[in-house]
Specification:
The complex is a heterodimer.
Chain A: E1 3-9, E2 18-24, H1 33-46, E3 69-70, E4 73-74, E5 96-100, E6 109-111, E7 114-115, H2 118-125, H3 147-157, H4 164-168, H5 175-186, H6 195-208, H7 219-223, H8 231-245
Parallel strand pairs in A: 1-5
Antiparallel strand pairs in A: 1-2, 3-4, 3-5, 6-7
Helix pairs in contact in A: 2-6, 3-5, 5-6, 5-8, 6-8
Chain B: H1 15-22, H2 28-31, E1 35-39, H3 43-55, E2 58-62, E3 80-81, H4 93-103, H5 110-130, E4 155-156, H6 162-179, E5 183-186, E6 189-197, E7 200-208, E8 214-218, E9 221-224, H7 245-252, E10 257-258, E11 263-269, E12 292-296, E13 313-314, H8 316-320, H9 330-342, E14 354-357, H10 359-365, H11 367-385, E15 394-403, E16 406-407, E17 420-422, H12 440-462, H13 473-492, H14 498-513, H15 519-539, H16 551-575, H17 599-602, E18 604-609, E19 618-623
Parallel strand pairs in B: 1-2, 1-9, 2-5, 9-17
Antiparallel strand pairs in B: 3-4, 6-7, 7-8, 10-16, 10-18, 11-15, 12-13, 12-14, 14-15, 18-19
Helix pairs in contact in B: 3-6, 3-12, 4-5, 5-12, 10-11, 14-15, 14-16, 15-16
The chains are: A alpha+beta, B alpha+beta.
Chain lengths: 259, 637
């Protein structure tokens, strides 16, 4: 099959970028979307042109490295499918395909389709954990977790941190990402001790980064390749309210992460 | 070169306890005076970096990905073993130890494997406490499932995303230490060389993959947790970025490389669909709990699977290995699939595939139960193949997956180069010639959480280390060599792309050093690889410059190293004149086609020492002594 690509090319964060058109033929519908880009890049190198830079690694939809806006949709047209798991059979012969990086102030473009998502790591470092130093854990079965809670927690823990939620949001808000972690840990007994400190810390860090506010558009849920639900945002809001209202100065001698 | 395993004395089940009782300790107030460089942020690296920082050491952690959370441990699907015996089905630390030694075809070091089995208990506890959402029973207790090579149910899991959840647990522990300022994280940084000062590993040279800046980072000890080298086959289940550069550079600086020929070909992967194929996708071994593997009895039977009647099917694993059946170990299952396809009974395009059929399990348990167990795997299969595995059997074929070989380490996970420690898949220590399913996660976390925090402290407390700065002549010299290598890659400006060379190398490795090996093929490969390498250095086309984000350059550097490593793998495979585990030499097989070990001549670890460019590496031997298990012919029949 034959497609025409319009790809955002940008040399680095400081340079301006723009679209470049690449008519591309000889594409098999069995190819994954990234394999199609591999083919384009091989041809560019043969012509002595710089290949298109894009993040990718596992190509199994789990590492969260890949991410690009395909025809206006983060990760492309197929529901709950990362760009690496998208196949060319989802397109038709003759299609025009526009490729852009995630667009968000908190995710500066590094090159072409690659953005800097380290803001997500800083949000996790601000509270997205259970403080349990190595060696201090009780027996695994000493902590009983109702099956239903474990399943709901796992639903939220499935987040791959790709950033599609931010790219989809008109405000470039990171609420779905943050709420997924707040829900994953908040739904488990292990996460209760730091539940309030966690939500306050993570939200404060989210605000310190250049993410926008959540105004309940719901675009994030539609774009999420792992099906993280909006109800996690409701849970975050509830936890945040309780934590903020009940906030007390940290007890003398309290360690990091306790609220 | 001396290979001293430094295994503590005493009975097997007391060795680790004895080590911990006798090891030297670093005073809590002195720990912050030591800097440890951890390369890699997967299960072993993240767990190790976080645990060392919790103890009070200054840690610098490096990964090539944009975030430590993306390390390839994340792709592990099925589960993690632990001898908890929660199922009351007769499991014990000894049984897990024994299964692992036997699964590895008696080519692993007893003491290391026993420690691994002991630590498996604490790993599960640690991960549960971190909030890893393991599967649960209705009463709230942890659930288990079965995996290959075991007759007990000891695998803990989080749907088909166990690696992801365990890695997020370790990543979150790591991020906590980053937030506390105890770990300095260098994401998008690739280690390009090791700095050795006075015979000790004291630092690394890294390239900032965004700016291209080359920098030396110095410390008191270096730990490599950089994963395996499966991408030497080009097509593998590894992530695209997985590479051997860190361990290969360390090998060239004096660390011995052990058993490079022990590579694991995983039996259940989605078959290749065409020339464009860039990687292969694993379908978890856990699927073999409920899926039945079969091919048509008749050669060249191209009817759709639904039209092939029960009596016309050959459930070859159940037929050949009745006591383990579909849960036979990986090496055995892979070879059986190859054999069926070689006989012309393979299915799908090109005849390189076998069926993994869930029809019986769906009939017995219902589609919902199967969806609950494997839903995400079934979805992934459908996305890739456009076929619905609830309705038609999956088509699968073996693919390169894991490498048991790696840098040689002693009991303390230290390589032959003092100060250089190696963790997880990057070392050779625990899996012998074949790794059992759900044991890689166990080993990565055991090394990271529970071994390295002790053994690195012992090393630091036992040696007086002068401070070394980036201005040390050795650091400068190593850095200059890295600069020169990058400059020469960029200067070639040849006609072929790096991917073309990588693909060609992969084909040589797969054809002549894959599931079955023989002297003629290995000798052929040993002629072809150096020729390909020579062509690479004359004719590769690397685009762009060194001082920018340049994926072309990153790939070229890694492939240049694979082109050297591939040769060592073939050399090791040639010299090991026996069959064991994943290393199947066609000349050495039993009458019914099973691997035939030669314990008289090859019951040892082969550790290769680099002798300079163009010189043949030297093969050293660490004899394997089995005191607690009886060297038996491995049988799953």
């Amino acid at each position: 099959m034959k497609v025409t690509l319009h790809v955002w090319r940008q040399k680095n964060t400081a340079s301006p970028g723009g679209f470049v058109t690449y008519p591309t033929d000889g594409i098999s519908p069995e190819m994954s979307f990234l394999e199609m880009l591999d083919v384009v890049n091989e041809r560019l190198i043969a012509k002595g042109e710089d290949p298109i830079a894009f993040d990718h690694d596992c190509r199994e939809g789990i590492c969260g490295a890949c991410g690009m806006v395909i025809n206006g949709s983060p990760h492309g047209p197929r529901k709950q499918t990362t760009a690496c798991q998208l196949h060319m059979r989802s397109f038709s012969d003759g299609d025009e395909i526009t490729l852009e990086p995630w667009r968000a102030a908190a995710f500066p473009v590094l090159r072409d389709l690659i953005v800097d998502r380290t803001a997500f790591d800083r949000i996790i470092a601000a509270g997205g954990f259970v403080s349990v130093p190595t060696g201090s854990a009780p027996d695994g079965n000493a902590i009983l977790v109702p099956k239903d809670d474990a399943e709901r927690s796992m639903d939220a823990a499935a987040c791959i941190g790709c950033g599609a939620c931010v790219a989809a949001c008109p405000n470039a808000s990171a609420m779905l990402f943050v709420s997924a972690k707040v829900s994953h840990l908040g739904l488990l007994p292990q996460g209760q001790a730091e539940r309030h400190g966690r939500v306050l810390g993570m939200v404060a860090q989210m605000d310190a980064e250049a993410f926008g506010s959540c105004t309940n558009h719901g675009e994030c849920e539609a774009a999420c390749p792992k099906g993280i639900k909006l109800e996690t945002i409701a849970r975050l809001n509830r936890d945040y309210l309780v934590a903020a209202v009940g906030k007390r100065p940290r007890a003398a001698g309290a360690g990091s992460g306790s609220g | 070169m001396e290979l001293n395993a430094n295994t503590p004395g005493g009975p097997l089940d007391t060795k680790w306890e004895r080590f911990r009782s006798e090891m030297k300790l670093v005073n809590p107030a002195n720990k912050r005076k030591y800097t440890i460089l951890m390369v890699g942020s997967g299960l072993a690296g993240a767990a190790g970096a976080a645990s060392l920082a919790e103890l009070g050491y200054e840690v610098e952690c490096f990964c090539y990905q944009d975030s430590p959370r993306r390390a390839h441990s994340i792709s592990a699907q099925g589960g993690i073993n632990a001898a908890k015996n929660y199922q009351n089905d007769g499991d014990s630390v000894f049984r897990l130890f024994y299964d692992t030694v036997k699964g590895g075809d008696f080519r692993a070091r007893e003491a290391n494997v026993h420690r691994l089995a002991e630590l498996s208990l604490a790993i599960i506890d640690q991960c549960v406490a971190q909030g890893v959402p393991f599967a649960r029973e209705y009463g709230g207790v942890l659930a288990n499932r079965s995996f290959g090579g075991a007759q007990v149910s000891r695998t803990f899991y989080a749907r088909g995303q166990t690696g992801q959840q365990l890695l997020l647990g370790a990543y979150q522990a790591l991020e906590r230490q980053i937030g506390l300022g105890k770990v300095r994280m260098f994401a998008r940084h690739e280690m390009l060389d090791l700095i050795v000062v006075d015979g000790r590993a004291r630092g690394i040279v890294v390239r900032d993959m965004v700016t291209g800046l080359i920098e030396s980072r110095l410390g008191d000890a270096v730990a490599l947790a950089t994963g395996g080298y499966g991408n030497v086959f080009y097509l593998s289940t590894n992530a695209k970025g997985c590479n051997a550069t860190a361990i290969w550079r360390a090998y060239k600086r004096g660390a011995a490389f052990a058993n490079p020929c022990y590579t694991q070909i995983h039996p259940t992967c989605i078959p290749v669909s065409g020339e464009h194929q860039s990687k292969l996708t694993l379908m978890s071994e856990s699927l073999r709990n409920d899926g039945r593997v079969w091919v048509p009895k008749k050669q060249g039977d191209t009817r759709p699977p639904g039209q092939i009647l029960e009596g016309e099917r050959d459930y070859y694993l159940e037929r050949k290995y009745p006591s383990f059946g579909n849960l036979s170990p990986r090496d055995i299952s892979s070879r059986a699939a190859k054999e069926a396809c070689d006989q012309g009974r393979g299915v799908g395009p090109g005849g390189r595939g076998v069926y993994l059929d869930f029809a019986d399990a769906i009939k017995r348990l219902g589609e919902d139960a199967i969806r609950e167990r494997y839903g995400n795997l079934f979805e992934m299969y459908e996305r890739i193949t456009d076929e619905n595995p609830y309705k038609v059997p999956m088509r699968i074929y073996p693919a390169a997956h894991y490498t048991m070989g790696g840098l040689w380490v002693d009991y303390n996970l230290m390589s032959t180069l003092p100060g250089l420690h190696v963790l997880g898949e990057a070392n050779f220590s625990d899996h012998g010639a074949n790794r059992l399913g759900a044991s890689a996660l166990m080993q990565g976390l055991a090394d990271g959480y529970f071994v390295i925090p002790y053994t690195i402290g012992h090393y630091l407390a036992s040696n007086k280390l002068d401070k070394v700065g980036a201005d040390h002549p050795e650091a400068k010299r190593t850095r200059d060599e890295v600069d020169a290598r990058i400059a020469s890659l960029l200067a070639i400006k040849g006609k072929r792309t790096t991917t073309a060379f990588h693909r060609e190398l992969g084909k040589i490795m797969w054809d002549d050093c894959g599931m079955a090996r023989n002297e003629a093929g290995l000798t052929r490969a040993l002629g072809q690889i150096p020729a390909l390498r020579e062509e690479f250095w004359k004719n590769v086309n690397v685009m762009g410059a060194g001082n920018e984000l340049n994926q072309s350059l990153e790939h070229a550097g890694r492939v240049a190293d694979f082109l050297e490593l591939g040769e060592l793998i073939c050399l090791d495979a040639l010299e090991r004149r026996e069959s064991c585990g994943g290393h199947f030499r066609e000349e050495y097989q039993t009458e019914d086609g099973e691997a035939k070990r030669d314990d008289a001549d090859f019951c040892h670890v082969a550790a290769w020492e680099y002798k300079g460019p163009g010189a043949k590496p030297v093969r050293h031997v660490e004899p394997l002594v089995f005191e607690s298990v009886h060297l038996a012919t491995r049988s799953y029949k």
